[in-house]
Amino acid sequence: MAGIIIVGAGQAAVQAAASLRQEGCKDEITIFGDEPWLPYQRPLLSKQYLLGTETEEQIYQRAEKFYEDQRVVLRLGERIESIDVAAKTVTSAKGEVIPYKELLLATGSRPRILKIQGSELSGIHYLRTLGDVNAIKNEMAPGKRLVIIGGGYIGLEVASVAVTLGLDVTVLEMEERILKRVTTAEMSEFYHQLHAGRGVKILLRTAVSGFEGDGHITHVLCGDQRIAADMVEMPMRVDDVADRQPRFGGMTQNRLRVSGVAAGVHHDPATRTKQHHAVAIRLLAGHERTTQQVQIRGDGFE
Ligand SMILES: Cc1cc2nc3c(=O)[nH]c(=O)nc-3n(C[C@H](O)[C@H](O)[C@H](O)COP(=O)(O)OP(=O)(O)OC[C@H]3O[C@@H](n4cnc5c(N)ncnc54)[C@H](O)[C@@H]3O)c2cc1C
Fold first, then answer.
1. Which residues form the pocket of ligand 1, taking CB atoms under 6 Å from any ligand atom?
2. Do 100 and 128 have their domain in common?
């Protein structure tokens, strides 16, 4: 019999599965995730995991046994390509068509990819997945020049870890102060002084215009300025167009094709779609959508 399918295997998905069981849901629950690892705590990537004080196993949200005990089937490394809401099926990248009774979309966000001169050079990293951080960790070494693009929380966390590990760190911030989007001028100044005091160079009003290198990054270009770099880190910026305005109905939800409902149906602020057997959730710090707003009932959710 068709059960509950959760698309995406991040924190929202795992918490939703746990809450469903806690509330007495007896349905079969299957989580599809396109990453190969057991669901992990993404916030720790730029903190303890990058620093090396926690291992991969230590940042998993739940041990493997939890999924066995709770009868939650994890199908990792499997991307769901499309949803047919009328037929109540999802189709995986391998072409398997899977029926569902209830569908939960927990596909999260993806990084906005910068497409400027030289952005394809090696040594330029985004930071969203465990794989991204492993690649960054492999390249990090004392004395290397790391340029971080953007003085937001994640960029500054990476800066802090990198100076601790002995790298030469420069943060580029296009605004007149770091953390401008998230805090007051006083707090920005406090954090500026804190990081500068630890040896992080912070260049304000400095916007990236391109990258230079011969296969591998050698310089970050900011107008007339050329900043030497052995590696570049771009903290994750959410793709606003695709992810902050998720749509459900003939359109896409994080590159997921959806058919079977009228085009342009937006889910409401409580994340319900017009199709009551399908719900979209996302954990976004500081935003109105959280798992708490998804009302989970013993016999399913709406
Ligand atoms: C480096 C870093 C540090 C952060 N630090 C903090 C912090 O300190 N505090 C804080 O509050 N937040 C922090 N965040 C943000 C926080 O991690 C996110 O808000 C949270 O992970 C969102 O959880 P989610 O389950 O909604 O989505 P995600 O964690 O994005 O998980 C969604 C998963 O679904 C997968 N997926 C997407 N589409 C499909 C598909 N079609 N088929 C199968 N799988 C799919 C994705 O690959 C992903 O694995 C940080 C984020 C990053 C990247």
1. 7-13, 32-35, 42-43, 45-46, 79-80, 106-109, 127-128, 154, 236, 254, 256, 282-285
2. no
Domain range for 214: 124-235
For ligand 1, atom 21: residue with the closest CA: 42
Closest CA to 159 of 227, 210, 235: 235
The answer to whether residue 117 is domain-embedded is no
For residues 20 and 4, the answer to whether their CB atoms sit within 8 Å is yes
Residue pLDDT tens, the chain, 302 long: 789 999 999 999 999 999 999 999 999 999 999 999 999 999 999 999 999 999 999 999 999 999 999 999 999 999 999 888 889 999 999 999 999 999 998 988 777 788 899 999 999 999 999 999 999 999 999 999 999 999 999 999 999 999 999 999 999 999 999 999 999 999 999 999 999 999 999 999 999 999 999 999 999 999 999 999 999 998 766 554 444 434 343 334 445 666 554 333 334 444 454 445 666 665 433 333 333 333 333 333 32
* CA of residue 80 to ligand 1 center, whole Å: 16
CA-129 nearest atom, ligand 1 = 53
Tell me the CA–centroid distance for residue 291 and ligand 1, in Å.
13
* 65 vs 171: CA distance, rounded Å: 41
217 φ/ψ angles, rounded to the nearest 5 degrees: -60, 135
pTM across the whole model: 0.86
